[in-house]
Structure formats: structure tokens, C-alpha cells
Amino acid sequence: MKSLFFELLCLPSLLIANNGNDSTSYWKIHFQPMLQFNQAHYDNWAAGGRNSIALSTSIDFRADYKQEDWTFNTAYNQNFGVANIAEEDGVIKTQDILSLLTRVGKRQGENTQITFFTDVLTQASPTYYEVDETDPMRAKQSNFFAPGYLTTGFGLEYHSDSLTVHADISPVAGKQTIVMDDEVDETNYGIEEGKMMRNELGAYLRLSYEKEILDRTELSTHLLVFTNYLEDFGTLDLYWRGRLNIHANDWLAMSLQTQLIFDKDVDLDYLKDVNGDGTSDITESDSNLQFMQMLGLGATIKF
């Protein structure tokens, strides 16, 4: 399954090679990796504190192909971060998100086209309930394609180059929730016990906005909305991602990232040491609003 991402990611390059040198004029490529490093040290600090080292990386890749009335778009985004905190056992994962969007479209007007799309959302590595890496019995909370979300469908896309806005509307879309790791509890992600997949049929909306709002300041935001026709119609699954990059120069930038997720089928486990023995027990599971925010300074290169 991991090879699927690399195959789709390399598809634009393969098409260019197959179409000859003249076809490169039809392509617009954007590639921006970023590496961020954070470190904190405390020595005889009365207020308290813990020494820590954190490292995070991000990749933002887009390839857009346009020839006559046909378009092809692919966007790959990955964020991964780890931290080592004094007096903690092992390395803590601080973020891990991987998304891939591919779209093929046939223009119907100046700003609209009929599209077929595939939208994938997952993570790259396992996450555990317990941080202690020396504990062989620690439970696995999630992993690559555990869960993974695959949404496909036909729809209408509206885009405005002047406003840098894209809107994808699909009245009929299929959403699959997949758990491929037997060590991950599939029931926490709305899948029946013993099964690997949950299928949903519904409506899908994707909104994107990207713009250089100030000199050397870039803002991008993406919103995905899905509602199931066959169960609890009107209840929305939401995924929102925002990013603000402020460039000091061509290679140094500050980045603020935020993500917000709500999925009624995802049960969040709440841990508490109820027995007083130093171990965490799951006290309840329920769906709730998920929020993540990361702020960092690091090196970046734009191609």
C-alpha cells in the first residue's frame, strides 16, 4: 500500500517523460520541503522545566497538468515530527499526517470542470498508547492505513485563479475507512469487530485557498466535508488544515500549522491511572473534536 503513494507521486514525471520535451510546458510543479528543529535546556531553573529536543519535517508537493480541455492535478502533503524529553523513555512522536489528492478533469467552462478524484488520508508510522518503548505489551493506537481514509467520486470543480480558490463538490462519493493492522482496534474507527473496512456513500465538499497574503507570507487552508446518505444524514465529518509560512529569507522560515478533525465514527480513548499503580487505563471512549497546532522555525527550500 505504501508503494501506491510513491507511484502516484511519480506519475507526473512519468507522463512528462512519455510525452517528450514539448509536454513540459503543460506542467506546473511546486515542491517545498521544510526541516524544523527545537531545543530547550534548563539548569537550576527555579520555575521548573524539562530539557527537550524536537525535530519535524514537512513535504508539500503539487503537480498540475493542463492541455486543451483536460487537466490532471496531484497534491502530496506529509508532516512528521519527533521529540526527546529528558527523563522520558524513548522518542515521542509529535505529529504524523500523510495526505494525497489526485484529480482528473474535463473543462466545461472558464472556471468549471467535471472531475474524478481520489483523496487519501493516513499516517506513516505506528502510534502507541504508552510512550515507554521498553514495554513490549504497550497497545498500538494507530499505524499506516490503520486507519486510512479513501474517498473517491465524480463532481464539479470551481476554481478562480484571481482569488486562488478551489471548490470540489461531489453529490455522489464513496468513503472507505480502512484498518490494515490487526494490532489496532478497528472498532475505535467505526468498523465492525473482525472486519477491515467500512464503506459509506454520501456527499463530499472540498474547499482550498492558497495565497501570498503579504510579502514573504503564504497562507493555505483546506476544508473537507463528508456526510453519509445511508446513516445519520446531515451529520458532518470534518477535516480542516491550515498553514502559515513566514519567510525571513530564501531558506529560513517560520511555520504555523493547525489541524482540526471531527468524525463521529472515531472513538477517542481517555486514559487515567484509576488503580494508582502508575499505569494508564482506558476509562471511556467517545467521539470528540480533535485539534493539533505546531509552531516551528527551520530551513525550507522552494522549487
Indicate the percent of residues in helices. under 10%
Strand order, sheet with most strands? 1-2-3-4-5-8-9-10-11-12-13-16
Average pLDDT, rounded to a whole number, is: 83
Cα-atom radius of gyration: 21 Å
Judged by helices, strands and strand pairing, the structural class is: mainly beta
Please provide the count of β strands.
16
State the separation between the terminal residues, measured CA to CA: 28 Å
Number of helices: 1
What is the number of independent domains? 1
Biggest sheet: strands, sense, closure? 12 strands, antiparallel, barrel
Shape type: flat
Low-confidence stretches: 3-9, 12-17
Question: Quick recap of the structure?
Answer:
With 303 residues, the protein is mainly beta.
Q: In words, what does this structure look like?
A:
It is a single chain. By secondary structure, the chain is mostly beta strands. It has one domain (62-77, 96-300). Helices cover 6% and strands 59% of the residues. It has one helix and 16 strands. It has one helix at residues 2-19, and strands spanning 27-40, 52-67, 70-85, 92-107, 112-122, 127-128, 140-142, 148-160, 165-178, 197-214, 217-228, 236-247, 252-262, 268-272, 281-286, 290-300. A twelve-stranded antiparallel beta barrel has the order 1-2-3-4-5-8-9-10-11-12-13-16. Strands 6-7 form a two-stranded antiparallel ribbon. Strands 14-15 form a two-stranded antiparallel ribbon. A hairpin with a 4-residue loop joins strand 8 and strand 9 (165-178). The longest helix is centred in the first third of the chain and has 18 residues, at 2-19. The chain is flat. It starts with a helix and ends with a strand. The relative contact order is 0.12.
